[in-house]
Automatic annotation (TrEMBL):
InterPro entries for the chain: MEKHLA, uS15_NS1_RNA-bd_sf, WHEP-TRS_dom
Species this protein is from: Picocystis salinarum
Start and end residues of each stretch annotated as Disordered: 26-54
Domain WHEP-TRS intervals: 245-300
Example GO biological process: tRNA aminoacylation for protein translation
Domain of life: Eukaryota
Record has Protein biosynthesis as a keyword: yes
Record protein name field: WHEP-TRS domain-containing protein
UniProt signal peptide: none
Entry annotated with the keyword NADP: no
A Pfam family it matches: WHEP-TRS
GO-annotated molecular function: aminoacyl-tRNA ligase activity; ATP binding
Length: 300
C-alpha cells in the first residue's frame, strides 16, 4: 500500500482492540508461558502447527484470534475513515497475511483500564525492535516515555479518537524496546466498533517516522529501509517453486481437511478451540498452495 493511500497511524497514541469474548490476541500472550514463542496457546497445539513446516511467524498471523483481529481492523478502519486500509480487492483469507506483511506500521491495543497491545504487524515489530511475544500483552503506555507530558499527549489523542471515531495527522515521540527514540509523523488513530456496537478498542497505522538523537542511521529501521526490505521480500517470493512442493502442499491440504472432518464427526464443532486451531492451519496451507500456483502462472 502506498504511503499516500494509507492513513498513517500511531501505535503509542493508544491502540485499543479488545474482544467481546475476552481480548483477542492478548489471550495468546497470556498463554505463552506454556510453550515456545508463537501464537498458539498450549504447547501441544503449537506443536501440531509446526509439524506442517511453518515458522511461528506464519502461524501467528493465521491463528484464529489474529484472523478475527485483522478483520476487525480492516472493517473498522473503513467505517471510521471512509478509506480502505489496504489497496486493491482481496479475499477475506488474504487479509491476515496482507496486513502482517504490509509496507506500513499497524498496531492495536485492547480496551482495558491499562490497555495492552493485542496486535502488531511485521513492520511494527521491526520498528520497535521487539518480538511478537514481547509486545503483545505489554501495556501500551510503555511504548512511550514515562514523562508526564508524553503520557498526557498520548492519553489526549486516545480520548479525541474515542470521541470522534478517528484522528489524523498525529505526531508523537515513542521509544523502541532498545531505548531508541523516534517521532511518528502523519499518523491516524481510529476507534474499533464492531458494527454499531460500543468501542472495543483502538488501532493505529503510519508509514513515516524519524529517529531522535540517533547518530548512526546505518542501524536504524527507517521508512526507506522498510520499502527496500519489503521489495526484497517480494523479489524472494517471486522465485518459481519446484513441482514437488506443489504436490506436497496439495497432499497436506487434503490431509488437513480430512483431519477436520474427522474431528467434526466425533462431535466437535467450529466453536471448539481444537477445531479452530486446525482450521487456521488449513487456511494457511491453502494460502501457501495458492501462492505457489500463482508464482508458476506468473512465469508461464
Amino acid at each position: 500500500m502506498a504511503a499516500s493511500t494509507v492513513a498513517h497511524a500511531t501505535f503509542g497514541a493508544g491502540m485499543d482492540l479488545g474482544r467481546r469474548r475476552g481480548s483477542m490476541v492478548v489471550s495468546m500472550a497470556k498463554k505463552k508461558g506454556k510453550g515456545s514463542k508463537g501464537t498458539g496457546g498450549k504447547s501441544g497445539k503449537k506443536a501440531k502447527q509446526k509439524t506442517v513446516g511453518q515458522s511461528a511467524e506464519k502461524v501467528r498471523y493465521l491463528s484464529s484470534d489474529v484472523i478475527m483481529t485483522t478483520l476487525q481492523l480492516v472493517e473498522s478502519y473503513k467505517r471510521e475513515t471512509g478509506r480502505t486500509l489496504m489497496d486493491g480487492e482481496m479475499e477475506i483469507t488474504d487479509a491476515p497475511r496482507a496486513l502482517y506483511e504490509a509496507p506500513f506500521v499497524c498496531l492495536a491495543h485492547d480496551g482495558g483500564e491499562d490497555p495492552v497491545f493485542t496486535y502488531a504487524n511485521e513492520a511494527a515489530l521491526k520498528l520497535w525492535e521487539v518480538e511478537w511475544d514481547d509486545l503483545v500483552g505489554m501495556p501500551s503506555r510503555k511504548s512511550a516515555e514515562e514523562s508526564v507530558d508524553v503520557q498526557e499527549d498520548r492519553s489526549s489523542a486516545l480520548k479525541e479518537a474515542l470521541e470522534k471515531g478517528c484522528i489524523e495527522n498525529y505526531s508523537g515521540v515513542r521509544i523502541s524496546g532498545l531505548g531508541k527514540r523516534f517521532e511518528i509523523k502523519d499518523a491516524t488513530l481510529w476507534t474499533i466498533r464492531p458494527g454499531e456496537g460500543e468501542s472495543v478498542g483502538q488501532a493505529a497505522v503510519f508509514s513515516d517516522w524519524r529517529f531522535v538523537d540517533c547518530a548512526d542511521e546505518e542501524d536504524l529501521f527507517t521508512p526507506e529501509k522498510l520499502r527496500q526490505w519489503r521489495g526484497k521480500k517480494e523479489e524472494t517470493s517471486a522465485e518459481v517453486p519446484p513441482p514437488a512442493n506443489i504436490e506436497d502442499l496439495r497432499k497436506q491440504v487434503d490431509e488437513q481437511g480430512d483431519r477436520i472432518r474427522a474431528m467434526k464427526e466425533s462431535g466437535l464443532s467450529n466453536q471448539d478451540e481444537e477445531v479452530q486451531q486446525e482450521v487456521s492451519v488449513l487456511l494457511r496451507l491453502k494460502q501457501e498452495l495458492a501462492d505457489l500456483q500463482e508464482k508458476i502462472s506468473n512465469v508461464s
